[in-house]
Design a protein that fits this description.
Elements (H helix, E strand, L loop, with lengths): L2 E8 L15 H5 L7 H17 L4 E4 L7 H6 L6 H11 L1 H7 L11 E4 L9 E5 L6 H4 L2 H11 L6 E4 L16 E4 L8 E6 L20 H10 L7 E5 L2 H4 L10 E4 L2 E5 L6 H14 L5 E5 L6 H7 L5 E4 L5 E6 H5 L1 H12 L4 E7 L2 H4 L9 E7 H6 L8 H14 L12 H17 L7 H4 L1
Parallel strand pairs: 1-2, 4-5, 7-8, 10-11, 13-14
Antiparallel strand pairs: 1-15, 3-4, 6-7, 9-10, 12-13
Helix pairs in contact: 2-16, 4-5, 16-17
Length: 448
């Protein structure tokens, strides 16, 4: 039976803005308060989805969230009609309104952690929604994320869904941005790789001093237990706290893996040699041959990696066994990064080609190609059980492009977030989107 790695990309929401909400994310903070272009952002994301589909890769789409989140504002003491809640928040606590309008759910690498059926005890694909409790604007996402994933992967024979972990610092969970999987074939048993920034209970692990470590060891271990993973099929590794303090807020800003290959920066991890040996040994036990590509700091600095998002790329397997790297334009603009990539692809190694995409709207808010996609390994039977409305096709691309053109603004500033009309525009657009994607009622305004 054939198996695939399907990339489900996040569709950028109508309230895409530069609120500068993500402390520790250099791009998010440095572009704070600039005007955004939600229409351009959504179309850039859709263009990447369409391009990968045209290249023969399996591609899906994951819907955005309702914003502003009026229910969240009500929980914080704002009352009245929806319009009055927004107006009061804008007048009395603008930062809370900005947080409630965040379109950060577009970065669906943080939506959940996914384990394929070949790895799990019950032979189902398991999803655990990320609690994202390190940042308030993201911590309010998981209830809707769970409903959307449930509507996409609804067949209980093949799919199992877990609620987010307890929303406390000890179980900070940022989803697939700190998780990857190594395997010989997507449908075969593999080794799941969990990267954490700190331990909540074990003081032997060092912690960063400047920026918060968002993923805990304890959260990663809990997800592995929920998914029924075997000890011999799991490797835990600690992110280098020094690179977290340089703006590497998730592992997918400093490393990316696919198939049997890990592409990583020399300074990405602690105890690197021990980690590589463990990955090699465990993958060998299930028939795989682990390979790694280390980018030396002498060629690409951590600062280069953060500014270019070299590692926040998509590493994709081609039928001939070679790999394709999908990178943002910022890699081409960085002289050292681009020189490294040219030497990499001309060396005859595993990564043979680099394709560049314009994702400026997302990049300015701190999210590159890897942030925009949630990877789900599926066999043919499981893929057939996925809601067909969310699988990208040429007609769906056309429908979504027309939908964006119809509903999205081409400019959004902080002052625009105080306009109650924006909520109505968002709800109208999302109501139509659920029909296009055949999701049913997944948003609070459709349920309540």
């Amino acid at each position: 039976m054939k198996s695939y790695e399907v990339n489900f990309d996040g569709l950028v929401g109508p309230t895409h803005n530069y609120g500068g909400l993500s402390y520790g994310n250099v791009a998010s903070q440095s572009n704070s308060q600039q005007s955004s272009n939600p229409k351009e952002a959504a179309l850039q994301g859709l263009a990447k989805m369409k391009a990968l589909m045209d290249m023969g890769f399996q591609q899906g789409v994951l819907a955005p969230q309702e914003r502003p989140d009026v229910a969240a504002l009500r929980r914080l003491g704002f009352s009245g009609t929806d319009a009055q809640v927004i107006e009061r928040a804008a007048k009395e606590a603008m930062p809370l309104l900005v947080a409630s309008c965040s379109a950060s759910s577009m970065w669906v690498a943080n939506a959940a952690t996914v384990s394929p059926s070949a790895d799990t005890a019950d032979g189902r694909v398991h999803f655990t929604a990320a609690n994202l409790n390190c940042k308030y604007h993201r911590s309010i996402e998981h209830p809707t994320t769970s409903r959307v994933l449930g509507a996409m992967f609804a067949n209980q024979q093949h799919f199992a869904h877990h609620a987010a972990l307890p929303a406390v610092a000890q179980f900070g969970d940022e989803g697939a941005a700190n998780h990857t999987r190594f395997c010989r074939e997507y449908g075969e048993a593999g080794v799941e790789f969990f990267v954490f920034g700190r331990s909540a209970f074990d003081t032997r692990y060092p912690a960063p001093q400047k920026y918060p470590a968002r993923q805990t060891l304890e959260a990663s271990q809990a997800v592995a237990r929920l998914h029924g993973l075997r000890d011999e099929g799991v490797v835990y590794a600690q992110q280098n706290p020094n690179v977290i303090d340089q703006g590497v807020f998730h592992n997918d800003v400093i490393a990316v893996g696919n198939g049997e290959v890990l592409f990583y920066h020399e300074d990405a991890f602690l105890e690197t040699e021990q980690m590589l040996a463990e990955l090699q040994g465990k993958l060998a036990k299930v028939g795989g041959k682990f390979q790694s590509i280390c980018v030396p700091r002498s060629s690409v600095t951590v600062d280069d990696a953060v500014r270019s998002y070299l590692f926040n790329s998509q590493l994709l397997s081609r039928p001939d066994g070679s790999m394709l790297l999908i990178v943002p334009q910022e890699c081409q603009a960085n002289e050292r990064v681009w020189a490294y990539l040219q030497s990499l692809t001309s060396s005859g190694g595993l990564i043979r080609e680099v394709k560049v995409f314009d994702l400026k709207q997302s990049m300015q808010n701190g999210g590159g190609p890897a942030c925009l996609r949630l990877r789900v390994a599926l066999n043919e039977t499981e893929l057939a059980a996925v809601n067909p409305g969310v699988i990208m096709t040429a007609p769906l691309y056309g429908s979504l492009t027309a939908w964006v053109e119809k509903h999205y603004r081409d400019r959004l500033s902080e002052n625009d977030l105080a306009d109650p009309q924006l909520l109505l525009e968002c709800r109208t657009a999302l109501d139509e989107l659920t029909q296009i994607l055949k999701l049913g009622a997944v948003y609070p305004f459709q349920i309540n």
